[in-house]
Structure formats: structure tokens, C-alpha cells
Fold:
Amino acid sequence: MRVSEACKVRQISIIDVSTPLIVPSFSSRGFTEFKHIYTSVKDYISDVSLLSAYDIYYEMQETNLYASDIIFIDSGGYETQRINLTAASDDIYATRDSSSIRPWSIELYRSVLDNLQSLSQLVLISYDDCNKHQLILDQIETTKSFFQKYPDFASDFLCKPETPESKLINIDNLLKYNHHLTSFSVLGITEKELGNSILERCINLIKIRSILQQENIEIPIHILGCLNPVLMISYFLCGADIFDGLAWLRYVFFDGLTLYQPTATVMQEKWHYSEQDLNLIYSTTNLQYLRHLSHAMKKYCNTKLIQEFSEWKSIIPQVIKLVKKAGLVIED
Structure:
């Protein structure tokens, strides 16, 4: 597949919003001061953000939700998962134990959606029940039925593994029912369920985008849980359009890299600031960084000039090598 076919401006139907989009997320999972964080930075996210229905229900009853022009509403499945303290996971930065997880259900999710106002353009993500597995066609039909009650909001179909044993979505089964995807505004896939390796995820994205293109289906693809700049650029070149995640609150984006906050603090000689001040400084500078990257992606869709990513020149050679290895054709 050629990069000119994979990287395009696509529209989120119903709300008619253009991609690519980079979506800073908020979550109480792993962030004990979640509400304070949101209040502190909400004025810096006027374009787009993601909130969890679980947090809206339990934490944000008296909070203004409509700080962004576009808001993705996640179904709350992420917040109800237990935290696994493994060295290979972002969960090592989380502090909540499983006993603090409160009851959650599709009925409670509906209650949140039923009370939303059209003060922002809204994208609703399908309900994610980690304890329930369905065949992909059943997932599609269930989600179509669920979203029928909300015709004025964009719909984001989050495809999930079909069995408890499977950790990945079945790409072939998803593509078997590709014509059903036109019922939704967005196709969502979590990064970890797209493939076992970064290369496999790039290969699968190219495969999905290629088949959809053959069927003249230009639905945006949303990679959930990915806000690492080098990975976003890689997946974007392979056909993904929307990205969200919490990395902007956990790390520092600097010179194309994602750094631990203490490392960035020393490199940038900000060692005289308190940790509280640094958290606000880095979250706001990270948001600015993500806006620059989003702008570069938009420009690249039009020009196809790799120079649009000059701010990330230190990582672009490796990114190009990766996506070519995955089968993408980069045109000169």
C-alpha cells in the first residue's frame, strides 16, 4: 500500500470533524488527583479530549465536562480493570488497588450518555465489558443497536478479541464484515490488541486500511491507548487517524522522545521547580507538543512531504525503516 493511500484527511460522520486527531485522555485509573488534574489543564484542551463515562458518573458530577470542542466519551471499561504492577506496563505508575473499583455496567453507561448535552461535538465509544466476549459480527450488531438511541452523536465501534483466551482482535474476521463498519463513524482498536509487536501492529494497520480502501470505505481508525509520538507517527503513516492516551500526563515529550519526568527535568535544567509545579509545566508543554504533531500530520496528508515532521527528525529515519518493513510504500 502506498502512503498516499494510507494517509488522508478523513471525516468523522455525524459530527463532520476532520482527522487526523490526537486526543489527550483523562482517567482516574492510576491518577489519585484526577479531578484536580482535569481542573488545572482543561483550559489548555479547547480542541479535543477524552473522558471516561465511569469518571463522569463518579467524579465529575459538579464539573464542567464541555471544555473541548470535541469530546470522546469512553465507556468506562479501562477504569474497572485491575492494575497489574508489571515492569513492562504503564500500570507501574498507577496507585489504585482493585478494592477501590466501584460498580459499573452498561446501564450506568447509558445513564451518563442520556444526560449528555450537545454543548460539544461528541464521539461515543462502544461499551467495553472485559468479562464478556462476542464474535465480531455479534459485537457489530450489539453496538449498532446500542448507538441507535444516540443518532446525533458520532459512534466509535471498539472491536475486541472474540474469546477470553485471545489477546488480539481477529483481523480476518473484522475484515470479513467490513461493509458493516459503514454503520459507524469510527473504527476503534486498542494498541495492545492490534498485534504482539510494533511491527505486527503496523502490518495489521496496513492490511486493514488496504482492504477498506478496496471497498471504498474511508472510516477513520482510532488507536486507543497510544499517545507516544514515535508510535503515533508510525501508525499514522500506516493508515491510522485518531490517537488517544495518558502518556502526556505520565511522561515528558522532548526532541522526538518520551522521557521520564526526572530525566527531562535535569536535561532542561528545571531542577529548582517543585514536583507539583513540574506536573503542570510538563502537562501543558506536552499538550502544545501534541498540537504541533497534529498540525504536522494534517499538513502531511496534503503534501506527503516527510519534511513536515522536521521537528521529529531524530526519530523519522527509524520510523521510515519500520513502516517500509511493514510493507508501506513511501513515495518520493
User: Anything to note?
Assistant: Residues 177 and 206 are 17 Å apart (CA to CA). The chain has a mean pLDDT of 93.
